[in-house]
Amino acid sequence: MDKLIEKGMTVAISLGAGFVASKVFDFTWEQITGEEPPKNDEVDAVDIKRALVFGITSAAVSAAVQVLSQRGAKAGMRKVRSSYGKKSEV
Q: Its domain of life (predicted)?
């Protein structure tokens, strides 16, 4: 049961952190470049260098959020286990 709760926490943390990270990334992109982030419908209008930079940085942010959310969920489960004991009663 603890594994199921840990997976649920990981999904919830990943979704929340991913949403926040994408909004922060889009805002930062606009502040640095002065343009909106490239989207799917603008593929032909975007310079290849700009598209590559956007793709690489976006993937790096996504990977970092995934790793940090997994670590956060595991740390959260450790805290829950330490405060309620090793086995849950559910």
A: Bacteria
Please report, for the chain, the start and end positions of each structural domain, with discontinuous segments joined by +.
2-84
Q: Which amino acid belongs to residue 73?
A: A
Burial class (CB in 10 A: 0-12, 13-18, 19+), 70: middle
Cα–Cα distance, 84 to 78 (Å, whole number): 10
Does residue 89 contact residue 49 with C-beta atoms inside 8 Å? no
- Token pair 């976006």: residue: 58
pLDDT tens-digit readout, 5-29: 777 877 888 888 889 999 999 999 9
- pTM to 2 decimals? 0.70
Residue type, 82: S
Residues 69 and 10: beta-carbon distance below 8 Å: yes
Structure tokens at 19: 């949403």
CB 68 within 8 A of CB 17: yes
